[in-house]
Each structure stands twice: as structure tokens, then as C-alpha cells.
Amino acid sequence: MKEIFGMKPGTSVLYIAPGAPRNENYVFEYEYWHLVLQPEEYRKRRGAASGLIVAKREAMLVTQLTAQEWADLVNVMKTAPQKLCEKAGVTFTGRFTGPVFNNGELAGQTQAQVHGHIYPVIEEDLPGPGVSNGIGAMVEAHREKHGKLK
User: Residue 118 phi/psi, 5° resolution?
Assistant: First the structure.
């Protein structure tokens, strides 16, 4: 693959090569995606069960995904939030935000690998001043107050 937006393929810490060892944050392997919890320092700010879906195939932009990868994403979203909550040991409310894709360097992407962020809304409050249920809950509360975007 060629360099795109200054990012080089194979430089992402998110790319999980076939047969690579799985760390303690690894949650589940789908047909075309990996599901992982975000590192603990991010979960403290964004939610105890905030996670990432990472394309199994090395790709830098969502526009490079195949129809099969997009179709599998539907299956992923049916179970990923619950699986993330189970792995994190928190209670899933049935609501979540995501997947959120940052596409390329211009969108703030720092990883040269397609990945989406998932923010399950959990029942437990997070420790810390003014932190309640993470970013997923914040987005859901905004939707309830102001309605859905049109």
C-alpha cells in the first residue's frame, strides 16, 4: 500500500497481524473485525467499556473497505457493545454510540489502520468529578434533550 495523508501502512499499533498474540484488552474476533477495549487511560475518560473495532485486513481509509467488511460490521454492532461491557465488568444499558470512524490524518487520525470507536452506555458511574457513564452517555443525553440530528 502507498502512503496516504502522510500515514504509512504497517505503522499502526492497532493492526493485529494474523497469528499475533492477543493482549488483555482483546475481546473478540469477528469474520472481518477485531474487537478490543481501549487502553485503560482512555477508558477512564471515555467510559469503562469504550472499545475499538479494528479491520482485520490492513487498510488505512474506510473507503478501502470491501462490501463484505461493511456487511460484517452490521453483525459486529449487534453484539460488540455487550461484549465490551462483559469484558470490562460493567452493566450494559442497551444503548451505545458508534461506530465512529476518523478517516485519515485530516480528521485527526493518528493510526494508519481503519478502526471505529464504540462507546457503550453503562449503568455504573465512573470515578472522578462530573464523570457519569462516559462519552456514550453524554451523547445519548444530548440526543434525549435536543432530539436526533436531521
Answer: -125, 130
